[in-house]
Amino acid sequence: MMGGRFMAAVTLKDVAERAGVSIKTVSNVVRNAPRVSDATRTRVLAAVGELGYRPNPSARRLRTGRSGLIALAVPDLGTPYFAELAHHVGREASSRGFTVLIEETRGDAREELRLATGVGASLLDGVILSPLRVSSADLAPVADEFPLVLLGERDYGSGQVVADHVLIDNVAAAREVTAHLAALGHTRIGAIGVDEQRSATSRQRLEGFQQALHEAGLTYDPRLAARVGEFDRPNGLAAMRTLLELPTAARPDAVFCFSDLLAVGARRALYEAGLDVPGDVALAGVDGSGEALYATPSLTSVVPDKAVISALAVDCLAARIGAEGPLPYEVRIAPHRLEVRESTDGVRRPLPG
Amino acid sequence: MMGGRFMAAVTLKDVAERAGVSIKTVSNVVRNAPRVSDATRTRVLAAVGELGYRPNPSARRLRTGRSGLIALAVPDLGTPYFAELAHHVGREASSRGFTVLIEETRGDAREELRLATGVGASLLDGVILSPLRVSSADLAPVADEFPLVLLGERDYGSGQVVADHVLIDNVAAAREVTAHLAALGHTRIGAIGVDEQRSATSRQRLEGFQQALHEAGLTYDPRLAARVGEFDRPNGLAAMRTLLELPTAARPDAVFCFSDLLAVGARRALYEAGLDVPGDVALAGVDGSGEALYATPSLTSVVPDKAVISALAVDCLAARIGAEGPLPYEVRIAPHRLEVRESTDGVRRPLPG
DNA sequence: CGCGGCGGTTACAACGTTGGAACAAGGGAA
DNA sequence: TTCCCTTGTTCCAACGTTGTAACCGCCGCG
User: Fold this and answer.
1) Helices (H), chain A
2) Residue B259 and residue A306: Cα distance in Å, rounded?
3) CA–CA dist A186, A216 (Å, integer)
4) CA separation, residue B217 to residues A133, A197, B223 (Å)
5) What is the structure's pLDDT at A6?
6) Quick one: pLDDT at residue B5?
7) Chain A within 8 Å of B199 (Cβ-Cβ)?
8) Closest CA to A218 of A245, A254, A270
9) Three-class DSSP category at B300
10) Closest nucleotide C1' to the C-alpha of B16
11) Which domains are present in chain B?
12) Do A268 and B351 form a contact (C-beta atoms < 8 A)?
């Protein structure tokens, strides 16, 4: 029987009776609609306060078609980058009156697509998706029907934009890191995180990597480009172990890892092999995670501005939700910076604090 | 107008027309209610499939008072422990038909209380709260009115149970770690993470720590018990630096950190001081995070079974949501195990994989 | 042969909210 | 004075769903 659990919820009707006005007038007050005299407004607000009225989101949603709920879909919350992102998106969203539902896709393409199409489209107003497997082509038929913002993964190759995108300039970021390694005198620079097939991010970082090698007059040795499935610690560990199996002369003297977790795994492999970082092999990653900062040695990393990324994403989504009809798709670039730490230049830096 | 965005949602009515039955019958079918003949059932299900009908959660909620939405409120998603927990809770919940809303309390007592009382009680069916600041006393008036499960933090001191609790045996866990350190021959064992005022978890771990010291015939030196605000990396770093400022003879030769992040911070401080782990100082933490496993050296840690914790928590909550009236409060203990790694016994262990 | 019971179905009324139209009360222009 | 317009308020209907009660056969029992 009626689910209000143990306490009876206060409704517009209760407030209306208390204030001696109609239900609709109370509704007008709580929604800040115009056409309400100051006298009634204060009277109603008083009643609202006394009774502790809270609008019923379900009824609202049913009537208006808006739930105030958006989802953030990420591959995995265990990845610090996504956890931090979730944190920022939550802040941004609540400052705009949205509530965020965090979903894990586990890198499953079907799951990603399901989220992108709005799950219970009737539950969500929109989705911010960090795609891993799903491609622009898969999303093309979807984006027009449901407010969707993609994080990263713009498919430069196809040139086709099928949704709003927020990303950092991955090519530039990779170029900067690699140039940094080259400037330190490394000549056999490797990369961990190649995954041409599936991940656009990976492709872009590889491209920046190759550009920088070229600009530094170095040649790209495919043996030094390690493929991985996910950007996690175990893959970093395995990839670095593989690189260390190369003949001594062919081994890398520096490695650019496409994520901090990969770098952490790679660092662990070097530790187990008894090699020094950066003495024997220099190491750099991407993400600006706390884990990389506190590693021993601290790991050089590209730090994307997650606050800006989140703000842009929520902005985009809010605009799309608020819009009546289709809007042109936007691609917004968030800033990043290269943070040089012990794992590349070897300079001891006590952490502040 | 009408918010269905761009596409028109399929409703029971549409399905009913298609199947040539009444709305209510369709409703009965989709809810798996009894009293539906197999013939009609299959006919209706066919129509459901063809039209791609999805029930409207808001309408359901409005009618039944249930939203199928539960919240997991944790202090901070950036903490790997909570991120992992969120992952498991999400799995457990969706297997029971719930959707999880993840909220960050940022360790703010008011925010915790707000969540515990159900925010928009009309939005959520229940809450799983990992409290940091809020006490049993604060929650006492709340728990009866709204389904609530607390993770950890059972206030043994007051002896008063005001809600369902799911936790590991913190006292035993701390005792095991400390006994392990003592068994290795350490005599000046320190602790990082003391916070008697606010955190019950911290109190329990301190108690287990002291018990083990006593059992090993060691005396408790308050100078070796470092206080912290949050269980994060910067606090671990700062605390260990403070311990290292003690006169040489008074310095710890082993430290039990109340979280893995504290241990990571402590390890960093030792690294900066040029000290060896575990040669100069042995280090152990709690949480079983991947970060501790991949650290160099890998950090010994108490690994709580997060899958079990999550399952128990969701079970409890589901029972409470399903119940008609008040239920007796339960306290459930999840298992943990001590994982000995390089940071205490010094034995090199290549990671598997 | 009528009547209770039961399996299967339907009609109706809510749940709390909001958009739109209708309605009362004043205020100025004709 | 009448008429229209503005301002504030109320009434009505609907959003999609489900609980309750009613309904319609049909069976088997007395």
Assistant:
1) 12-19, 23-30, 38-51, 57-64, 80-95, 109-116, 136-143, 170-183, 200-215, 233-244, 260-272, 290-294, 306-322, 342-345
2) 26
3) 10
4) 57, 61, 18
5) 47
6) 43
7) no
8) A254
9) strand
10) C10
11) 1-42 (no CATH), 69-168+306-336 (3.40.50.2300), 170-303 (3.40.50.2300)
12) yes
Given a contact cutoff of 8 angstroms between Cβ atoms, the answer to whether B184 and B345 are in contact is yes
A62 touches chain B (CB under 8 A): yes
C13: residue with closest CA to C1': B63
Nucleotide nearest to B58 (CA to C1'): D16
Tokens of B289: 């995070």
The separation, in Å, between residue B23 CA and nucleotide C7 C1' comes to 19
What residue spans of chain B are helical by DSSP H? 12-19, 23-30, 38-51, 57-64, 80-95, 109-116, 136-143, 170-183, 200-215, 233-244, 260-272, 290-294, 306-322, 342-345
Alpha carbon distances (Å) from B289 to A299, B85, B271, B300: 19, 11, 20, 10
- How far is residue A191 CA from its own chain's centroid? 22
Q: Answer whether A122 sits within 8 Å of B57, measured CB to CB.
A: yes
On whether any CB of chain B is under 8 Å from the CB of A233, the answer is yes
Q: Do A90 and B78 touch (CB under 8 A)?
A: no
A224 membership: H or E segment, kind and range = none
- The first and second tokens of residue B260, run together, are 């893995």
**Cα angle for residues A128, A131, A135 (degrees, 5° grid):** 120
Instruction: Provide the CB-side half-sphere exposure for A83 (13 A, CA).
Output: 23
Query: In Å, what is the CA distance from B174 to each residue of A141, B180, B213?
Result: 55, 10, 10
pLDDT score recorded for residue B323:
77
Q: Report protein residues in contact with nucleic acid strand D, where contact means CB under 7 Å.
A: A 1, 21-25, 28, 34-37, 39-41, 59, 62-63; B 2, 4, 9, 11-13, 23-24, 27, 30-31, 33, 53, 55-56, 59-60, 62-64
Interatomic distance A163 CA / D16 C1' (Å): 30
Span B18-29, pLDDT tens digits: 999 999 999 999
Q: Which residues contact B173 (CB under 8 A, 6 or more apart)?
A: B205, B208, B286, B302, B304, B336, B338
pLDDT tens digits for range B171-203: 999 999 999 999 999 999 999 999 877 788 899
The CA distance from B24 to B90, in Å, is 32
Distance from CA(A33) to C1'(D6), angstroms, rounded: 17
Closest CA to A259 of A236, A278, A282: A236
A97 vs B: CB within 8 A: no
Cβ neighbours of B65 in A, within 8 Å: 2-5
**Torsion A132-A137-A142-A143 (CA) sign:** positive
Residues of A in contact with B78 (CB under 8 A): 80, 83-84, 87, 290
Query: Cβ neighbours of residue B231 under 8 Å, at least 6 residues apart?
Result: B79, B193, B258, B259, B261, B262
For strand A300-304 and strand A282-286, is the pairing parallel, antiparallel, or unpaired? parallel
C-alpha span between B165 and B136 (Å, rounded): 11
pLDDT digit string, tens, across residues B111-137: 777 776 655 556 788 889 898 877 777
Neighbour-count burial of A92, counting CB atoms closer than 10 A to its CB (0-12 exposed, 13-18 middle, 19+ buried): buried
The tokens for A220 are 């790209």
Nucleotides of D under 7 A from a protein CB: 7-12, 14-20
